[in-house]
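Hi support team,

I submitted a single chain yesterday and got back a structure, but I'm not sure I'm reading the token output correctly. Could someone confirm the output below corresponds to the sequence I sent? I've pasted both exactly as they appear in my results page.

Thanks,
R.
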Amino acid sequence: MASCSVGQSPMSWPFMAAAGLSVIVSLCAPVPALSADASAGEGQKEADTLSKLRAAHRADPNDARIALDLGVLIYRQNGKSPEARRLLDTASRSFPERHDVHLMLLDSCLAGGQLEAAEKLIRRVQSALDSDQRFAFGLIYYLLQYRQLLLAQEQWNRVHDRVLLQVQKASGQNLEPAVKKKLQMEVGEVLFVQGL
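Hi R., thanks for writing in. Yes, this is the structure output for that exact sequence:
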């Protein structure tokens, strides 16, 4: 979970956005903690894997699955890497259902100062954002993390309007408990982001 720096209120928006992002990331891809010995071994395995993936990519640069695996591995090592961004862009286009790849590409674009590329990505995946609240909130948290407030506000407005419409449609209906809970959580998250 995110921690506050000295003099930073735990209720400030950067902390809250980072905390929210940590929750989203932990829900999407839990990673077990490694001991120091295991981490050292994992580092060597990662280097070997990187070498093998680079060789496979050179042998078949059109294989989107190799581009995905190589892009993710390079992104994990250096999120700002132009090579990771290029490979993740290829993977993002080849696997449009992989919202995690879109978010990694967005993070890489924003970390590398490539705001125009980030905006193009958002436009390209807008229909997926409009149909998947989790994806939309993940994107909003990244935008907040990089202080792209206007883009975050635009996306939040879209989510807010969709959730408000869902609430209006559900008003007076006897909803199943699971549907009601999901809607309550989405309303709660909309209000949480609004408070940031």
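A quick pointer for reading it: The chain is about 75% helix and 0% strand. Let us know if anything else looks off.

Best,
Support desk
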